[in-house]
Specification:
Elements (H helix, E strand, L loop, with lengths): L1 E5 L3 H12 L3 E5 L3 H8 L10 H10 L3 E4 L2 H7 L2 E4 L14 H13 L4 E5 L7 H16 L5 E5 L9 H7 L3 E4 L3 H11 L9 E4 L1 H32 L3 H9 L20 H14 L5 H13 L2 H9 L8 E5 L14 H11 L3 E5 L4 H8 L5 E3 L3 H5 L4 E4 L11 H7 L4 E4 L6 H6 L3 E3 L9 H4 L1
Parallel strand pairs: 1-2, 1-4, 2-3, 4-5, 5-6, 7-8, 9-10, 9-12, 10-11, 12-13, 13-14
Helix pairs in contact: 1-3, 4-5, 5-6, 9-11, 9-12, 11-12
């Protein structure tokens, strides 16, 4: 099939590349000339395991092309995927300006029947707005051309996006058109061979499904963090609690690991946007607001534990930070807990000495050159001459630690573990002042007393 994908960000690039990899003829279009030039050369602007080799393979096979020529791109594909960003607006709702701009472009250049596919995460009712925008442009052109709009939300996790696309649990399509359903079956046929993954529903149900999925996962994370904070104050080990509830098949083990809060490009903005959507239709989504509030508070827990461990004396201190990305296997630092920590440390006059396997360049892009940020080559360099260590991201290379070695590296043997990677008793036996999340050691003065 001839397919066009608008947007070469995370979702657009993964979508276009995976569809090309099964033999479709894909054109990815973007307004960013420099990004397109990099992609044409095989230079991938994001880190995602396996993506670079797949892009190069499909460029070489001439199944995947990149362009800034919108007319050519629209004329190319019967299927027109919209996979551009929907950043949060000032009030927390999703900003649809880029989605609607693409809709205008499609209306301007379409020369025959098109299926316009909302791949971006968009609020309920967006398909109607996309349809209205295209109809308006066609009316200005005095052109009577047929088209359909459907919803096909993505369910990709950064760090495992290729696996999620090619072996995902479901493929959701929102449409009431048999013609669209047939075309989408053809599009996804290579990924729908082992069992029926395609789920057809109304457009609005598909739009809501995406937000509901992310909100449910975010809720599990915030709930577990809430219980972890309670466990600290009650003298219980959250790891015991996690195993106890996770063994219940109705709950399961996924997304019940306590930590220092969720981040990234999806959960924060999607929970916020869904709450805003509810408000617009006269419903106050109190649970969603609580999920967001708990997560915001949880991101401060690393700094609070560190400040407690160092008796509030942070000025002039050097703090080692392991992990900058919001999760492993990505360089994405959007809404990452590391950012909340580092900015709080800088406000108190501390220096951050940090290492991340992939996010160093992104950190430098965000914060630039500054005297109180030292980015080093590996985790060993990060702790040299540091006063304390904070672990923000559970990269594999951080999952083993010689407790006696780390005690010898740090001037104050303090380790704040935001991902519960180590055994508290082992760390304490080695003389390390070890703080995890919900694992018995509390900073609540009422309990400490």
């Amino acid at each position: 099939m001839k397919i066009t994908v608008f947007g070469t960000g995370y979702v657009g690039l993964v979508t276009g590349t995976c569809l090309a990899d099964v033999g479709h003829d894909v054109v990815c279009v973007d307004i960013d000339q420099s990004k397109i030039e990099r992609l044409v050369q095989g230079d991938i602007p994001i880190y995602e395991p396996g993506l670079e080799s797949m892009v190069l393979r499909n460029i070489e096979g001439q199944r995947l092309k990149f362009t800034t020529d919108a007319r050519m791109a629209v004329e190319h594909g019967v299927l027109q995927f919209i996979a551009v960003g929907t950043p949060p607006d000032e009030d927390g709702s999703a900003d649809l300006q880029y989605v609607l701009s693409v809709a205008s472009t499609i209306g301007q250049y379409m020369n025959g029947y098109k299926v316009v596919i909302d791949k971006s995460t968009v609020p309920v009712g967006t398909a109607d707005k996309v349809r209205e925008r295209i109809e308006g442009v066609l009316a200005e052109r005095v052109a009577d051309l047929p088209f359909d709009v459907c919803s096909n939300p993505e369910f990709l996790k950064e760090g495992s996006a290729l696996e999620d696309f090619t072996r995902g649990a479901r493929i959701v399509v929102g449409t009431d058109s048999d013609r669209v359903a047939d075309l989408m079956r053809e599009c996804y046929a290579p990924y729908n061979r082992n069992r029926e993954k395609l789920m057809f529903m109304s457009v609005r149900a598909a739009e809501l499904t995406k937000y509901a999925a992310n909100a449910m996962l975010a809720t599990k994370i915030s709930f577990m963090n809430e219980i972890a904070n309670l466990a600290e104050r009650l003298g219980a080990d959250i790891e015991d609690v996690r195993r106890g509830i996770g063994s219940d098949p109705r709950i399961g083990y996924h997304f019940i690991y306590p930590g220092c809060g969720y981040g990234g490009s999806c959960f924060p903005k999607d929970v916020q946007a869904l709450a805003r959507t509810a408000s617009k239709v006269g419903y106050e989504a109190e649970l969603l607001k609580a999920v967001e509030a708990v997560n915001k508070r949880q991101k401060s827990t690393l700094f609070e534990k560190l400040s407690h461990a160092l008796d509030g004396e942070l000025e002039g201190k050097t703090i080692a930070v392991w992990g900058l990305s919001f999760k492993p296997e990505t360089d994405d630092m959007r809404d990452a807990p590391s950012r909340t920590l580092m900015e709080a440390l800088w406000d108190k006059g501390a220096t951050v000495q940090a290492y991340d396997p992939e996010a160093m360049k992104e950190c430098r892009r965000i914060y630039g050159e500054r005297d109180d940020l030292v980015l080093v080559a590996d985790r060993i360099q990060a702790v040299k001459k540091a006063d304390a260590l904070v672990i923000c991201t559970e990269w594999k290379e951080f999952r083993t630690l010689d407790a006696e070695w780390i005690r010898g590296q740090l001037s104050a043997p303090v380790v704040i573990d935001g991902r519960n990677l180590f055994d508290p008793e082992t760390m304490s036996a080695a003389g390390v002042d070890y703080y995890a999340v919900g694992r018995g050691k509390t900073i609540d003065p009422r309990v400490a007393a």
